[in-house]
Design brief:
Layout: H1 3-8, H2 10-35, H3 41-59, H4 78-81, H5 84-93, H6 106-116, H7 121-185
Helix pairs in contact: 2-3
Amino acid sequence: MNLSDLVKSKKYKTFMARLYGIGASVVIIGALFKITHIRGADLMLFIGLITESIIFFFSAFEPPYIDPDWSLVHPELAGLYHSDDEIQKMKEQGIIKEKKEREPSLTGELDKMLKEANIQTDVIASLGQGLNNLNTTLKELNNISEVAVKSTNLVNTIESVNQNAEVLSHSYKQTADVLNQESKLT
């Protein structure tokens, strides 16, 4: 098995995936030791950098990533991958099919329906204005509900103040009665 076959093998790819993970963890631990000034930080950083060097060495032999030819699935992308001459040859060979007549788009169908229903642009503009007015009204209703909640809170607060005033008044009356009785005794 030559080097080219080795780097394309599943075992090599599995080995590299593990090497990346283990190597990254060693480098991170080395950096952690160095940042936190733990004893042995220089050694750990040294081991981490050696590990990183080994990773770079092995990754140099990995085959480059090949971007798939998406024009085989999406013919409209053919211009990104092939010249005009290549595209023409591929069409002649049947690899890329000519674009079919497009199905009518949703907006095209909507335009057709509006034309058939004899709905003019001013009606659509009026509909848009009506939707905007509805949105404004809903916002105002939201504000009204907030005012109602605040009013309820205000009423509750006033009732609480009233109850406290009654308790305070009762306490003053009791205190006044006690003082009157003491003044009569003296």
